[in-house]
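PT: before anyone asks, these are the final sequences, not the draft ones from last week. 663 residues across everything. Please model them as a single complex and drop the result in this thread when it's through.
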Amino acid sequence: MELLLFLAAAVRISVPYALAAVGASFSERGGVINIGLEGIMLNGALGFTLGAHATADPWIGLAAAIAAGVATAALHALVTVRFRADQITSGLGINLLAAGLTRYVLIAVFHSSSNSSRVPGLGEISVPGLARIPALGPVLAAPLVLLAIAIVLGGQWLLFRSVFGLRLRAIGERPEAAATLGISVGAYRVLGVLISGALAGIAGAWLASEQHSFTDGMTGGRGYIALAAMIVGKWSPFGAAAACLLFGAAEALQITLQGSGFPNELLQMLPYLVTMLALAGLIGRAVPPRAIGVPYDPEQH
Amino acid sequence: MSGPPPPDSPPGTAPAAHPALARALELSAPLIAVLLALAAGAVLIAAARENPLAIYGLIAHACFGTGYGFGQMLFKATPLVFTGLAVAIGFRAGLFNIGAEGQLYLGGFAAAMAALALARAPAPLPLVGALAAAAAAGAVWGAIPGVLKARFGAHEVINTIMMNFIASALVAFFGRRVFQVATLRTAEIPAAAALPRLAAWFHALRGSAANVSLGLAALLALATGWLLFRTRLGYALRAVGLNAPAAEYGGIAIGRTEVVALAISGAVAGLRGVNYVLGYNHFFELGFSAGAGFLGIAVALIGRNHPIGVIVAALLFGALSHGGLVINERVPKELVEMLEALVILCAIAVQEATRRAARALR
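LR: through. Structure below.
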């Protein structure tokens, strides 16, 4: 039972990571690095809060979060795909922009530079059967947890079993070859980035919904962790989700051990250390898509 | 690069080459980017129902209208020279140091701890010790991702981000043991480690926090220029950044050069803390300097990874940062943060666009 409760906590913590990480695998498989996850998630959280605040309906909040995420990702796509600018710098710029924008809106709408007023969360839905699973039942009653599981499964299928996924991956490996076959490199890359934006937006909605409010900088580096998880998971939704569960477990362990005398600050380092060890090849080499980070320029082929 | 078109080419087939025009276009890219960002910012200000020109006028007056304001702008620009140079050194070697934030954080903490440890030592020692500790802490924090990249091929971008989080946890861990009771700061550093304010010599700057760190930043810019363009190491560093396989063919050890480049970059970032810890507050405080590391990326981009460009860009961002505080009564200062982000996005987009246009002109 203890173990199941721990697992339940790990699943709950890893939801936003998994959503953003699965999204990132679409962006990066198409060849566009997305360090802007952090800012997209932050804008998504704000979108949820604004939507839920204005209508008192958290589902409209969720729609607003997706819209905010897609809009932010569209800016990243514009700069990196249309203008072919450096992808890492663009992502960092988007993170800075989101940090300033969310605080600006917070002041304009809620007259506070730190937090919004309380908004309704997405609540629970009862799925017969699931509710009776010990310990995990309550976690599986959260609609976004179910959605996240569906997205992980569906994402894996879409990326590796569908025509769309095949083309997207081809573009991330050899865009010039894909272009020769008449596939629009730009359109697919934009689509990959937008999918990433929608999912990171949902991740932000989860954070704001759980907390029933928006607080300044509430993503707290989760976007970066999600990106790392996607790399550790070798650019696949299944792998990314597994890595996110690992990070979720590390965080759950940190919460469990709090007050046990073990220095909390050292526990906080766990997910970051795990990431660095993983990147150093502890779990086998992580080979990125061949054309990642390289803007596609038809004039040069 | 290419010269005039060959004389035997039939007239009318190749467009006339304008290498000088192309070069001018490329050089003016940062200026175009800043103007574009200011235009976008004007839209944001107008959306907040204020007159953009009046707001920009206020910022300009805040920075150049009074000696105090000018000093404050210099004070805000100082850390950005350090982080801008740090990021630029990395960029020159083809490395993206997003870890300046963590390096400067550890550097600032190390500077305070060294100054406190040397409190009883004779005069120049506390200061020298603090500077050395700041640079050393930053260098170590920069070298680690360098080693991981050289040895295991792990990308420095993710690792430097992870190291930022680890640095902040590490400082919190050690800080809890040394911070003053019920505060998040260290004790005051000894007077022998403190850097005097510039107002001691230039009375016009009275009241402003600009201090001797600015001179240190200028010296560091000179040293960076010398390192990059006048030394064997700088040559190796730039060669690796421009074309790693060719550099290796030329006998340059890529891995070693990358580690050294990130260590130097980290040391420069680590010194950022002196402006605040030794020159202003005279203690280290948890969470100091949030964002200077990331802004360093913008400064390096706008400054085209050149020491002189970095100084100019740091002054621009220093003006925005100080100006933001002044306009806060009329529009939220967060607007300036958005403006800074817009400068980054415009800079990279314009850089690509002008490079393309310049190529067509050659």
